[in-house]
Amino acid sequence: MASSCWSPLVGQPISPEHASEISRVFKALGDPVRLRLLSLIASHAGGEACVCDLTEVFDLSGPTISHHLKVLREAELITGERRGTWIHYRVVPQRLASLADLLIPTTAETVAS
Amino acid sequence: MASSCWSPLVGQPISPEHASEISRVFKALGDPVRLRLLSLIASHAGGEACVCDLTEVFDLSGPTISHHLKVLREAELITGERRGTWIHYRVVPQRLASLADLLIPTTAETVAS
DNA sequence: CTTCTATATTGACGTCCGTCGAAGCAGAGT
DNA sequence: ACTCTGCTTCGACGGACGTCAATATAGAAG
Fold first, then answer.
1. Is B35 among the domain residues?
2. I need a surface site. Which of A1, A31, B14, B93 has the fewest CB within 10 A?
3. Is A4 exposed, middle or buried (CB count within 10 Å of its CB: 0-12, 13-18, 19+)?
4. Is the CB of B75 under 7 A from strand C?
5. What distance in Å separates the CA atoms of residue B80 and residue B54, rounded to the nearest whole number?
6. Is Cytoplasm one of the keywords (chains A, B) (predicted)?
C-alpha cells in the first residue's frame, strides 16, 4: 500500500519513514539478477513468465531464483498467480511508474532561491 | 559514462553487463540514509549542501555520513566541489532522469500479444 | 494413493555492507 | 609554524545478503 502517494525526492526532504519504505523497493532493484528477472518478465510474451522460463536463463539454482522472486514480490514490483502447475509472474507497472515519479525532479521547482 | 544510453527494462531483456551497471546505482539508492541525503541535498537552498548541513540532521557519526556520500558519489548521483573549507554537494539530475527513463514502461509496447 | 513435476521454504556458509572510533589530510586563522 | 575545524580514510566488528543442497508443499497424472 501507499504505492503512489510518494512525494518526490526534490522539493522538500523526505521523512525517515518515507525513506525506509522507498529504500526497500530500490534495494530490491539493487541486484543484477533481480533486475534481469524483472526485465525478463516484463519483456516476455503476454507480459508474464513462469519460473521455468526464468530459471533456464541463469546459471543459478532454483531456490536462488525463487528467493529473488520473493524479494521482488515483497517489494510489490511483481505479482505471481498460480494457474495449474505453473506460477505466472508479471510486473506491477504502477510500481515502476511511482518510482519514476519519485526520481523526476519537476525541474522548475529545484532552483527556488 | 554511459549514463543516458540505458535501454528500458521492458521491451527486451537487459544484458547481464547492463544489469550489473544499473544495479550499482539502484543499490546506492537502496538505503534510507542515502535516500534522505539525496533528498536533503536536492531540497537545500541553491540545490547544494555542505556536509555539515547534512551531518547534523542524522544521529550518525561523521565518518558514516562521509561513507554514504562516497557511495552516492561513486554512483554518480551527486558531485562534490570544494570551495574553501567546505565541500558542497549537489545532485546530478541527468542521472535521476536516466533511471526514471529506465523504469517508465512506454506502456503501449508491453501488451503485444 | 502414489508418483512426478514445478515451485517454495529451511538451514547453513561465505561475503558484502553499515556503523563506529581513531587517525589522516586540507584550508583558514592566529 | 602551530592549531583549529571540516571532511575523509582506515581498520574492525556485527548484522544483513546471495547462494546452495536438502527438504517440503502443491497440483497433475497415472
1. yes
2. A1
3. exposed
4. no
5. 13
6. no
Question: Using 50, 70 and 90 to split pLDDT, how confident is the model at B110?
Answer: very low
Q: Is A10 close to B45, i.e. CB distance below 8 A?
A: no
C-alpha cell at A4: 503512489
Residue B1 in domain: no
B7: cell is 535501454
Asked if the structure places residue B84 within a domain, the reply is yes
Q: Where are the strands (E) in chain A, listed by range?
A: 48-50, 78-83, 86-91
| CA B99/CA B81 separation, integer angstroms | 24
Q: How far is A51 from chain B (nearest CA, A)?
A: 15
Largest Cα separation within chain A, whole Å, is 60
- For residue B36, give the CATH number of its domain: 1.10.10.10
Q: 3-class SS at B110?
A: coil
Q: Is B89 helix (H, G, I), strand (E, B) or coil?
A: strand
Q: Check: CB of residue A50 under 8 Å from CB of residue A88.
A: yes
The model's pLDDT over B20-58, given as tens digits with 9 standing for 90+, comes to: 999 999 999 999 999 999 999 999 999 999 999 999 999
- As a rounded value in angstroms, the CA-to-C1' distance for A83 and D28 is 12
Mutate which of B4, B36, B74, B78 to test chain A, going by most A C-beta atoms within 10 A? B36
Tell which strand D nucleotides have any atom below 7 Å from a protein Cβ.
5-11, 17-22, 26-28
Q: Name the nt closest to B66 by C-alpha to C1'.
A: D8
φ and ψ at B15, to 5 degrees?
A: -75, 160
